[in-house]
Structure formats: structure tokens, C-alpha cells
Amino acid sequence: xxxxxxxxxxxxxxxxxFAAPGPHRRPGLALRPSPPTPPSSSLSCCRASPAAAAxxxxxxxxAPNRGPRGMGLRxxxxxxxxxxxxxxxxxKVMISGAxxxxxxxxxxxxxxxxxxxxxxxxxxxRAEVSSGTEIGKKAKEYMDNGMLVPDxxxxxxxxxxxxxxxxxxxxxxxxGYPRSYAQAQSLESMKIRPDIFxxxxxxxxxLIDRCVGRRLDPETGKIYHIKNFPPENxxxxxxxxxxxxxxxxxxxxxxxxxKQNSEAVIPTYSDLLNQEFRGIPxxxxxxxxxxxxxxxxxxxxxxxxxxxxxxxxxxxxxxINIPELNPxxxxxxxxxxxxxxxELSLSFADDGKRVKVCVQGSMGQGAFAGIPLQLAGTxxxxxxxxxxxxxxxxTFINFxxxxxxxxxxEDDMFILIAPxxxxxxxxIDDMKAMTDAAGDRPVILVNPRLxxxxxxxxxxxxxxxxxxxKYAASFETCYSFRxxxxxxxxxxxxxxxxxxxxxxxEIYRRVDEPNGQERYVLLEEFVEKPTPDEITxxxxxxxxxxxxxxxxxx
Length: 554
Known about the structure:
This protein is an alpha/beta fold. Among the domains are: 92-202 and 244-273, Rossmann fold, CATH 3.40.50.300; 291-453 and 468-539, no CATH class. It contains 17 helices and 17 strands. It has helices at residues 73-88, 103-114, 121-131, 134-144, 151-162, 165-170, 181-189, 204-212, 234-239, 248-265, 291-310, 334-350, 378-384, 428-438, 459-462, 465-473, 532-539; strands at 57-58, 92-97, 117-120, 172-175, 196-200, 214-216, 223-225, 274-275, 315-321, 355-358, 397-400, 413-417, 443-446, 476-484, 495-500, 505-512, 518-526. The longest helix has 20 residues, at 291-310. The two termini are 35 Å apart. Keywords: Kinase, Nucleotide-binding, Transferase.
């Protein structure tokens, strides 16, 4: 299935920024759900983010139409009925992915969230190999040569495991099986069928790099990567070994075998697939952005932020600088920022959280009172926006300013809209008082601008500057996106830098296609935010380790 060919730049294509949202729903089963399909014709719809290896294909029935939670007894009763139904019929999930696609990480998160029994054919086979059984010896021979183990070797083990009491009680997540058409048909003949079928897709070059650079610590069993996750010290580095099946030739062989078998399996479960694209939307220089592009970024931000909050992060910030959210560009739209805040607020309100949305007030006194231009009128806009039909505003969502006095005991979390310093005034003192009063409740900054601004006689630049900068840096970035241009310009778009918690920073190059379309190609990943030099070097690789390139992107 291909995505739409381009993003319209006409006003008609971009819906009004204050249009009423529909009933807010979240996926019923998508631990790392993909954002909606953005306009792009150059990439397959089932292509997942290379770094995240996120769910790219899920069951159309996996996300039941469930109304917002926390808005009334009727919703809670519905959830109770759904829970009872799930108890009667445990969830059954299959997941498929190439070597190093991130399948293990996804399985762990799904098991933690839904309590399913994880059944890995790899674990079953390794148990046989370590036990030295006849089946184990045969399996080891195939595995050492980078080949998949024949169907009959694993079928009996899988079926036996599925029949055990814990699986019948809790449901199952079947990892790595079926891997061929024959295995899939064998399960079909025994009436063993999943409710959901998940496919992970990652480009071959990324998979090969992950495998070939992977190293194993034989003492601890910990996995390292020579570039992405190097060992802590020389002692650990000295004892690392390469797995026998992680050579370039064997990885290529495994990938080809996986592709052949995957193509044979997917038709059996085609009725369960709802394929989606996950990547970078194209035509981001078309203004105003289409509704599809805006919705893509809203959901991308929402998913990352929810994961960070679920992981007990309490001081978070979102930095998103698409053209309509970049105040340094003349196409900045306050309505886009308000829509983003609304999506975040309603999502947490759906969980029964009481969210306080805060906008800093006027700074200064008398005739010198003022507010940053980016925030002018935002409080009024919040008041007149449509917050849906469930009465969220005034109950689960309330508005306030920035300061300790705005923190009420019934508030569960706080979203601060673009808090920023202004010439002669600093918002950080009020923010610190507010976060101190909030305690361990989440405080989320949306597009903060907390760098020091000049003040009278330079006082603001010197007194307490280190403490202010340290406080500003205490907020952990849960989402970051910005387009990359040549330094000093906003055209053409050279690429993008993206990070969505808990994944790495990803650098993409924008590529023009012969047919007039464009696409974004992943260049490199970083655990920490890359420096300008590192970004430049990702676009222009160094010839050797000692050669450095001048910073050319910003």
C-alpha cells in the first residue's frame, strides 16, 4: 500500500487550527505506536523507523474504539466490561522481524504492559542446544552456518509450549514463529491463530551495521556495539567476542532467508494487517502544513511524551521546530502550537489525569509590562478553543500562569507553553518555584526558550547565570525535531534531526527523487544530541578518524 503522493499547500487542505477534536482515542495495543500516515510516495507504508524499529503492521482489530477514560462512570464501566472480556479470551500475538530489528526490545515492552507469556523459538532452540540434545545438535549446525532451522525441528516444541497452563491463562506472544509458509499453515490446521500480527521493518544497511558491530561479553552475557554502545572500560573490551553468526556474510544470508520466508508467511495473516508508515513527512516547506502533517507530528510528540511519563520522568521538555512551530520563521502559527498542547492535554485527561496548562503572564510593571510576542493572546485562545464534548475543560483540564501559586493539590501534571525569558526579565525563578511546589508531579515544557537575555547593565547575564542554566538543563528532552539547513539559511531543507523517547537521535538526509518526489534517508544515530560538527560529518563522512569537517548545518 502506498501513501498519498504529496502534501497540499492550499488552505483548504489544512483544516482550521481550532477545529473540535473527535473523541480522543489511543491504540488498544501498541506499546510504541506509529504516528498516522504522512504524505509521502517514496517510501513503503510498512516501513518502520530504522532506529526505533517500531510496530509497522498491527491488527485492524487491535485498537478497539474506546472513548476517553476518566471522563465519567460510563467510560469506566465500559473498560470493566472490556477487561472481563479479555480475561475470558487471553490475547494472542505474533511478532516478526529481521535479525537486529529490535524485536527483543518490543517483546519485552509488550510482555511488561500486557502480561503475556513470551514464547521465543530462539530461546526454545537454545535450550535444546545447551542441553546437548539431538535436536540441539542439529539446530546448532544450521545456526552456525547462518541458516534457519527446518520447520519440523521447532513445530512440536512450539505447539507443546502453547498448550501449557500459564499460556492458556495469560495469553501468548509468539516470537519468531511461524517463519515459513509451511509453519503458518501447520498452525492454521491446528486452529492456532493470533489476534494480532506485528511486523517490524528496518533497512538492510542498518540491520547489517547492528549485527556486524555487535559484541558479546561472555562473562556477563551483556551485548555491546563497537559504535553505538561501546564497553565501559578496556577490561570489558578485551574479553568481548563476536557471535559466530554475526559476520557480514552470515548476516546477509540470514536477511535474505528471512525476507523469503516472511513474504511467504504474511499472506496467511493479511486480514490482520493494518500497515502504516513511520518516518519523516515530506514537503515540509509547503505552508500551511496539511492536516496530515500536523497530525503526524502531534502523535509523534504524544507517543514519546507518554512513554517518558510512564517511565516516571517528571521534568520533561519538547523541542519541535517544524516551520509552523519555529518562531524564527515568518510562517510561525500560534494555532499549530495550541493544537499540539490540546492533543497532549486531552490524551492525559483521557487517563483521568488533571492537567494544568500554563502560560506565563506579563513581565515587568506599569507601562513596561509586556509578554513575549510568541505568547501574545495564547491564554485567550486556550479559553475559546473547543476541548471536545466530554466536559474536559474546567474539570480535567484547567489553565493557569507560571508560578508556585498556580500549583493546586488536585493537579496531576503541568504543561507549560513556550516558557521563555525576555529582555530584562527572567521566567526561570517563577518556573523553579513552580516545579518545587509540584514535587514529583510531571512538568512538561513545550518549546521552551530559556537562554539568558540581556538586561539592564548586563545584570541578567551575570548574576546567578550558572544556576539558571543548570536549572534549564535539568529538564530531559523527550521529543526533538528540527529541520537541517545550510548555516544562515532556511532553504533548501538538507535533512532533519529527530529524537523520540526512548530512542536515539536520528540524522536524516532529504533526497530528491527523479520523479519530483522526495524522501528522508537515515544517515546516523547518536545516543546524545549530536553537535554541529557531528551533524556535518554525518552528511560528509570523514576520510579518516583524524580528519574533521567544519560545521555547516544548523
